[in-house]
Amino acid sequence: MSGDTRPEEHPHITMNEYRKQFPKDQKEYFGMLKQQGLVLDPVVFVKKPPSIDMDEILRETYERAVEKIDEFYANDGRFLEPGGLGYPPTMIDQFGKDYALNAQGIYYRDSYSSTWVTENRKVWVPSFEGVDWDSLEEMDRRKRARTIVEHNKNNETRRKSEYAWEADAWTDVFGAMRNDPSVEVDKHDYMRNLPNTDPVQCTLTGDSTVVKRTPDATFGLATFSELDVNLDFWSDELRRDRLERLMLHRKCGLLPDPKWGKADLVFPFAVYEAKGWSGDYRDARRQACLAAANYLDMLDDLARRPGPVGSIKPYQTATSHQYQVFALTSFGAHWHLLVGYRRPRGPEPEEYADTEGMSDTVYVFQRVWSARVINERVAWELLSLIDQIHLWAITEFRHFVIEHLRAWHGFCDENYILDWDSVYDVDPEQKRRWTCDSSGALPLPSWVNLLSDKPRQLVQDKAKRSLAKVLMDRKTRKGKRKLTEGWVCTTDDCCYSSDSRHLLDKEFLDHMRSYHHCPENELASMGLCIEKRWVEECLKSVMPSYSAEGSQRPSKRSKVR
């Protein structure tokens, strides 16, 4: 049915009500056209993708199986056509979820073409150019490929659940990234203020809901503490405490972790969603693209000049808008690799720029590669593409993130303390006393207001601890920190040695490393304990009513082992 033969808009109507009303509207509409002597437009038939029966797929040729699954994955590939006219209920049932994503800005292209890449940007995609299947350098990758094929065939033969496919992907496909200490890979939540869509019109309603979703795997950058400074891949810009300041300061509000309030897995560059045979593969694409769109928004915030949440901020450089992410999905042994980027909604006819009910931003996802991974060559192709993405992530992407973080950290370092004037006490007879009122709430960025009461209070507490640590650091730099008795090592009666009496924090850790050859993981644990004690002392000094529930301060006399 053509767009001109749809019934008129029904605002605020439920889907069940619309199903009952639609035949009546169609009959009245066709009758009106007949009375006016108008010629009906030719009916446009929308082809419904065939459902996937995996038992039948196993009996198909390789080429036909791939064709069927790719067709089902794309779900016809048509885009939403807004404009006040409604779709038939059957079309909404089949395509409504994708139409709603179009209104929210998410578009899937069933192939890759550089002509779709607009806004003066470059998109990097992995390829097989310069990669030789027969090279001796590929022997290890081909060995890994054979393992993937063996597991995939076993999962298919035994009709295993989604968990088996997902677990094998973690080890066989993503193992190298999982073992890279500069990359963080986890089944990690993300939060998003998601625009709501009308169930009938599929366009935006104007309100939104904060949602929490958990992809099967999220790939981002690892963060560090001050104690990790000796690591080769350590970066001061990726220190957790500094990232927390960016997140919590009201004039920054930059969210580094998709799980609001955290700074563990930051600025994701890829997402993975798996479906077993009993799942709907189209849902894997929708879920992966929605998560990836959220990560693109995070990168867009990072790429802009520092400033408050919601303010108009230009990009830091002429190429700062050239960021991207990847979305990976699997349906049994069938894999898809998509590349996604973000830009303003454009003049393309199918995007309907400046149309009510449509987002201002679009997230374009193009299929780079897809295949049914049941032979060594195809499995090798998958690994080659994933390994290239891994290399890109720890080089070009990581450099992009670190370079753009520098401007944010510089802005935050200059303003972090100065901006708390409203919560500092000022003694008119003395210079400013840097203290914090524990009874009141610190002013926080606007994203905190979207949280419920309990998470909001947790963020408030974290902000006070972060501020207390900054104040203590400031006093230390100015030589105003009161040094107490220090640490005493009691390992092997070491406290009787003059080398271990009343050691300061760093001296104590150096002592344990040099004299007792303490492993680095134990030193890291001791360092965190010392840092916690230090921050709690500062909190009690600047906020006398502060008490850490359930926490116990470590003894000044520390016994190790």
Q: How would you portray this structure in words?
A:
The chain is built from 13 helices and eleven strands. It is α/β, with parallel strands linked by helices. It folds into three domains: about 5-35, no CATH class; about 55-120 and about 145-415, no CATH class; about 420-560, no CATH class. The longest helix has about 40 residues, at about 375-415. Mean pLDDT is about 80; it is low at about 1-10, about 425-440, about 480-485 and about 540-560.
What are the defining features of this structure?
disordered N terminus, globular, 3 domains, single chain, 13 helices, 39% helix, alpha/beta, disordered C terminus, 561 residues, 7-stranded mixed beta sheet
Q: How is the topology of this model organized?
A:
Blueprint: H1 15-35, H2 54-57, H3 62-74, H4 89-104, E1 106-109, H5 139-157, H6 162-173, H7 175-178, E2 183-186, E3 190-197, E4 204-213, E5 217-222, H8 240-248, E6 265-275, H9 281-303, E7 325-331, E8 334-344, E9 361-372, H10 376-415, H11 453-477, E10 488-489, H12 505-516, H13 520-542, E11 557-558
Parallel strand pairs: 1-9, 6-7, 10-11
Antiparallel strand pairs: 2-5, 3-4, 5-6, 7-8, 8-9
Helix pairs in contact: 5-6, 5-10, 8-11, 11-13, 12-13
